Amino acid sequence: MTEQYPDNQHLIINVGRQIGSGGRIIARRLADEFGCRFFDREVLDLAACESGISQQFFEQSDEQRGFFRSLFHLHAPHIGDNNFYTDSISQESLFKMQSDAIRKAASESSCVFVGRCADYVLRDFTNVVNIFITADMEQRVERLCERNACDTTTASKLIANGERQRSSYYQFYTGKRWGHSESYDLCINSSLLGLEETIGFISDFIRKKIQTSPHPMTTSE
Q1: Which of 20, 25, 93, 221 is geometrically suited to a Cys-Cys bond with 140, CB 3.0 to 4.6 A?
Q2: Beta-strand relationship, 186-189 and 37-39
Q3: Residue 166 has what DSSP assignment?
Q4: 3-state secondary structure of 221
């Protein structure tokens, strides 16, 4: 079943996720379920295209603070055709460009966004559902071991370091706490039901939230 929405009443689903929680898989399936465009790292491509800034800058800034310490090892030709120099680009300006790209995409069609503070960036949009996916640490470590072909110690460090960066990035730009329930409409542990049942649960939640929205959307099957 694919849901259809009026052009001026797009459905926006923002998915925050712990590392190894299966959040990206869930987000992709939700995009398929509701007929939405899917944006994870695709946001970086879009921001680079819209701004004319090299995608390399957005990739280094992606969901982390303090990357500019290494930015100066890049040379001006990597920046594209705008003739910027590294000292004229701040991480805040990259975040604004990325946010502009997110808002543009959300204004054009129904979308699912993974991370990138999209819940905050799109806070003034209607028909927005903000989800956060967690999972038990043992399962998260196991997923990273399989994904990165590493041992449990390395996987645990990747999770700790990555989530420290995500939390700092999110709090800096939103003033809210990453992963805390007050920032989202629904927080769910994917380990409890498994990925398939979690996707079904979230889909039902989204439909019910749509039905109670002050900006109702029609659906067709």
Answers
A1: 20
A2: unpaired
A3: H
A4: coil
Instruction: List the beta bridge partners of residue 14.
Output: 113, 130
Question: For the chain, where are the alpha helices, taking DSSP H only?
Answer: 23-34, 42-51, 55-61, 68-71, 91-108, 118-121, 137-148, 152-174, 190-211
Q: What is the pLDDT of residues 7-25, one digit of tens each?
A: 457 899 999 999 999 999 9
What's the CA gap between 201 and 192, in Å, rounded? 11
Residue 130 backbone phi and psi in degrees, to 5: -110, 120
Q: What is the pLDDT of residues 63-74, one digit of tens each?
A: 555 544 444 444
Question: Distances in Å between the alpha carbon of 92 and those of 64, 95, 97, 168?
Answer: 12, 5, 9, 14
Count other Cβ atoms within 10 Å, centred on residue 133.
26
Greatest CA separation for the chain: 53
How far apart (Å, rounded) are the C-alpha atoms in residues 59 and 78? 13
What does the alpha-carbon distance between residue 133 and residue 52 come to, in Å, rounded to a whole number? 33
How distant is the alpha carbon of residue 166 from its chain centre? 11
Two tokens, residue 83: 């003739």
